[in-house]
Fold this protein.
Amino acid sequence: MKEIDTVPFEVNQLLEAVYFRYGYDFRHYARGSIERRIRYRVEHSELENVSQMIAKVMHDPDYFNLFLNDMSVTVTEMFRDPLVFKSIRNQLFLRLKNYSRINIWHAGCATGEEVYAMAIMLEEEGLLERSQLYATDFNNHSLAVAKEGIYSQQHMSKYQKSYKKSGGKKKLTDYYHTKHEHIKFDQGLRQHITFANHNLVKDKEFAQMHLIMCRNVLIYFDHQLQQLALNLFKCSLIDRGYLILGREEALGSAAMHAVFESIDAKYRIYRCSACA
């Protein structure tokens, strides 16, 4: 008799248990990605199967935090896809200058490098003093790193090149100081950033946003959850506010195409035209 793969069934049980016990809903995450992450944790926990993992997640909060970190997307960098940031600088900022206050939401900010990149651009364009950036993630460990604004020096030369390609006007070294093998961003940048725990699956919208950055997060959601998140963004934006997705992400439905007008299809920049 052919052996039956019980992993999908066990994964369903695990995700239901997590939702019941902790309120985190991963049931509509892209299944291939989530199964790989769960298999990784099973293997590195020296467990025999996913069913054994269920008991540990249910009764051991520290182990659940390991699981939560596995589910979180923590890959980010400063000025990733620098031409996207150049488009923001040259197109969107010209329009945002008309507002007396500018609210920007980085949804799924991970460890925060992209948020500091945005703050640097706002500073160089004379907009930071009237801007407030909201950086959110459901991973508290990543948020703690982002709040500190302390990073390894090893990536800074790469970030400097991307910064210049994005239209940077100075040097990145003007915005941080170094100590040993690490850098720390200046307080002048950090004081305009509010970091907060927020779960796109279950938490409410952020009101009156002029720009929302959510890049390379929706690719980990199934279609249903993507539409839920996009509707959340729609309700968070002011009329004619802007949404920027990742290069591999799309609006995915006629309903969302009716709401979001494409401003730059190549770089996934949209304008919300029906936020009511």
User: Anything to note?
Assistant: The chain has a mean pLDDT of 91. The chain is about 45% helix and 20% strand. The radius of gyration is 20 Å. The chain has two domains: 7-71, 82-272.
